[in-house]
């Protein structure tokens, strides 16, 4: 679809949530004080299989892969995923696997303990299909950490800036 390609091109160019450095990740040591990252952190533990669905440049994956002895799979349809992969290689982050693939038809051979899907579904016209696919990839008792933008979010962000 032309619209899908336009969205993919937009996010490949934007590289959301942006490029980062090792010093940026170190700001979250030992535990993130950012409410958003702290919420995710509270659900993670060593030994888990974790999917970051719609990872963009992989900020979440690389941040948490440095803190937990878990297996992370990071998926995004844009080429932004390659920044995260290159960052991981350059910084010795070996517990993350990187995949460029559209979530609409993404499938994985095993299930996950935790699936993180933050700020993604509301951008996908086939969001119901993606949500069904994500739920099917959860282990019994697994947790889906789903975040959607609130219409007031951009206004509030101007008043209360969020630093990731």
Describe the structure.
By secondary structure, the chain is α/β, with parallel strands linked by helices. It has helices at residues 2-14, 22-26, 35-41, 59-65, 81-90, 127-136, 153-159; strands spanning 49-53, 71-76, 96-100, 112-118, 138-147. Strands 3-2-1-4-5 form a 5-stranded parallel β-sheet. The longest helix is centred in the N-terminal third of the chain and has 13 residues, at 2-14.
How do the strands and helices of this protein lay out in sequence?
Blueprint (H helix, E strand, L loop, with lengths): L1 H13 L7 H5 L8 H7 L7 E5 L5 H7 L5 E6 L4 H10 L5 E5 L11 E7 L8 H10 L1 E10 L5 H7 L5
Parallel strand pairs: 1-2, 1-4, 2-3, 4-5
Structural class: alpha/beta
Q: Output the helix-strand order.
A: HHHEHEHEEHEH
* Global outline: globular
Task: Summarize the biggest pleated sheet.
Answer: 5 strands, parallel
Enumerate how many helices there are, as a single number. 7
Radius of gyration: 15 Å
* Distance linking N and C termini: 33 Å
Tell me the fraction of residues in β-strands, as a range. Answer: 15-25%
Strand segment tally: 5
Mean pLDDT over the full residue set:
86
List unreliable stretches of 5+ residues: none
Q: Largest beta sheet: what is the strand line-up? A: 3-2-1-4-5
- Helical fraction equals 25-40%
Summarize the structure.
With 164 residues, this protein is α/β, with parallel strands linked by helices.
